[in-house]
Design a protein that fits this description.
410 residues; 5-stranded mixed β-sheet; 16 helices; globular
Length: 410
């Protein structure tokens, strides 16, 4: 089965309006399904847990579209997926180039280093939750806007030394680039604007070096080495700052929504029957913050069985959030949020050589945000019970646009 032999294929909804239903339909159809992505680009969508594990750990699959994807030659200017697929960082590098570049930042995200950040994260969470606690009875707040977003953007920007005057600009720039519903001209403008902001950050850090990761990246990795190119610096900042807050914002917001929708689980937490870590892992399984992640490319023909062969040069997109709801892994009610389930296996942070460096930090931030919020505001309630908040307009990331709550119900 090749892309040329299939005249029609499903089109992934770029607005992400029904990502889980869409993924379930694809999963049922086969180990990989040829779909159309924005561009338009044909790619094999992979949504089964076992197949995702197989392909993300297979050296015959590359993330480096510049080197290995023949279809890149046909992409017009303003290709909406270019900011991710062509990002010049270890996110897309292959083999030894990937390992070398990843080593530049990996030590800063080790479990030991992340744990040292706990006091800083807790201080920020305390400040934000106290602001929520100061609201009068009946007042409405937004968990995403007032807690999850400012917490995560503060932590990652402190780590990379982003000055206050650039933080909002960089954050909104990344949000805009991840909106997969944008047309070509809008997508190109969003990408240009983001890289201008990141360029401002590099200029600022060259003039004001400090003990932060951006300043470290401006230096050679070892004495005598060449420093990173400007393109790789910009790509690495996009990757680390973007992934360092966007996915965790969705994790925290989705966890609060799930707990307030199912308050019986809060009771179990208070009774000691389940732990906060159970809630976090179940949220990662149930509402993985990253849905479809293009682009990968087959370096050889790959036979997945069931009559599906991904041919050399074919593009691949991985549905990481879909893996958590795979009934082959979770046969008991995979579409239900249940932190008491014994297995919460998921691939929310990826798999294989490109496993997310920020996984430990994301879990730490979620733990601190949730424990601080519910300890300070035990009566916290949804402002609109039964209402499903609008989703982010993206098939790339997964989460609610906002979550209105009442810190002190009247």
């Amino acid at each position: 089965m090749t892309s040329l032999s299939v005249p029609k294929c499903p089109v992934l909804d770029p607005t992400g309006a029904s990502v889980h239903a869409e993924a379930a339909a694809l999963r049922a159809e086969g180990p990989a399904v040829l779909v159309e992505l924005p561009g338009p680009v044909r790619a094999w969508a992979v949504t089964r847990h076992s197949v995702i594990q197989k392909l993300t750990n297979d050296p015959r699959v590359s993330r480096d579209s510049r080197r290995h994807w023949p279809g890149l030659a046909d992409m017009p200017e303003g290709w909406p997926l270019a900011p991710l697929a062509l990002q010049n960082s270890f996110f897309n590098f292959y083999g030894e180039e990937h390992r070398r570049s990843r080593r530049r930042v990996a030590p800063s995200f080790s479990p030991k280093q992340v744990e040292r950040m706990r006091p800083q994260v807790k201080a920020t969470a305390d400040r934000l939750v106290k602001e929520l606690a100061a609201l009068p009875p009946g007042a409405v707040a937004d968990v995403r806007r007032d807690l999850a977003l400012p917490l995560t953007i503060t932590v990652i920007c402190d780590l990379f030394g982003v000055p206050e005057h650039l933080r909002r600009k960089v954050g909104t720039g990344i949000d805009r680039v991840l909106d997969s519903s944008l047309g070509p001209e809008e997508a190109m403008a969003a990408s240009d604007t983001l890289y201008e902001r990141l360029g401002e950050l590099l200029r600022y850090k060259r003039e004001n070096p400090a003990a932060d990761l951006t300043s470290d990246l401006l230096l050679p990795a070892e004495p005598g080495d060449e420093p990173m190119s400007e393109a790789e610096l910009l790509g690495t900042l996009f990757l680390m700052i973007g992934a360092g807050y966007e996915t965790t914002v969705n994790l925290i917001t989705s966890a609060v929504q799930a707990l307030l929708t199912h308050p019986e689980h809060l009771t179990r937490i208070n009774e000691g029957a389940i732990a906060w870590q159970d809630v976090i892992e179940e949220t990662l399984r149930f509402e993985g913050p990253v849905m479809h992640m293009p682009m990968r490319c087959a370096l050889e023909d790959i036979d997945l069985g069931e009559g599906v062969v991904i041919r050399k040069g074919d593009a691949i997109t991985i549905g990481f959030a879909a893996a958590g709801r795979d009934p082959q892994v979770h046969p008991r009610c995979p579409e239900s949020f249940d932190p008491t389930r014994a297995s919460k296996e998921h691939l929310a942070f990826g798999h294989g050589p490109h496993f997310c460096l920020g996984a430990h930090l994301a879990r730490l931030e979620a733990e601190i945000a949730l424990t601080t919020l519910f300890a300070e505001l035990p009566d916290l309630a949804l402002a609109r019970p039964g209402h499903q908040p609008a989703r982010l307009t993206s098939f790339l990331i997964n989460g609610p646009v906002g979550l209105e709550v009442i810190p002190h119900p009247a």
